[in-house]
Amino acid sequence: MQSARLVIALQKKGRLSDDSISLLQRCGLKLLSSKSSLFYSAQNLPIDLLLVRDDDIPALIRDKVCDLGIIGENVLHEQENPSEEFVFEKVKKLGFGKCRLSIAVPKEVDFSDVTSLIDRKIATSYPNILQKFLKENKIEARVVTISGSVEIAPRLKMSDAICDLVSTGRTLEENNLKEVQVVLESQAVMIKSRGALSFEKNKTLEILLRRMEGVMQAQESKYILFHAPKSAIPEIRKLLPGSESPTIISLAECDDKVAVHVVSREAVFWDTLEKLREAGASAILVLPVEKMML
Ligand code: PRT
Ligand code: ZN
Q1: What pLDDT does 35 receive?
Q2: Closest-lying ligand to the alpha carbon of 10?
């Protein structure tokens, strides 16, 4: 009989590792803390984790070694084979590992639009995504596939342009390159195979997804408390960012003032607090929200 435990593949060592493990831990999974092993077993939910190289995750799901995986959309799209008719399904975007796959050229090169790439050589580790982009834009160009340090290709005269991942832009800057065209926006996603999971595994996945949603909502939310004159409440409500109906509580021995409690689903900036204060709010507290279930 097949195991009823849900197996999730994660990147063993790299940019997505810590955030993937931390998200699962915040969803309540009790894992052994050592990272040296290839395998984690959650002690309080039927979930096992397999730690591997990110590039191996799609194949492990395709071969049914794992049910789910967490990878960058860039890796997923590079490995997706259109003839296989969507083997993978994006179950959830996870909000970390954000970057973009972009075309960059040496700073001194004139670049007006994508037609500037016609007949040019572009070096990349993402030949499939790049070829698809060029085809969609009807650009004939040469794609040179290299596996690492793509940013040095123009200096070595291996290419006229590059197509690589960018997050802060520092690597491009250090190599005298400028970003001229975004090809793909990417973040970490949880993926699964299109086929249905067993009843038990599906139940575990539903629990996990609900908790992930709660963790992600809580991460962005703040609990705001303050005192305010009753008469200022209509104006104050307009100032509260992304919030639902506030709870208004009367204060002991104080007829004209109330306490206001509200959950904001957005970041709360200093200028919002200053505006609240100008509108009459005082004793303002902004607290992080740890968990949320709607
Ligand atoms: O060993 P394994 O194969 O598992 O790891 P890996 O080396 O393939 O991947 P890793 O850990 O470098 O990245 C994993 C995933 O993180 C990627 O597939 C992306 O989805 C995501 N990610 C987010 C990034 C970046 N940001 C990023 N900045 N991956 C790579 N980079 C590199 C980029 O290639 C370039 O060299 O960082 C450099 C640019 O960064 P900036 O900040 O200078 O612009
Ligand atoms: Zn990799």
Answers
A1: 56
A2: 1
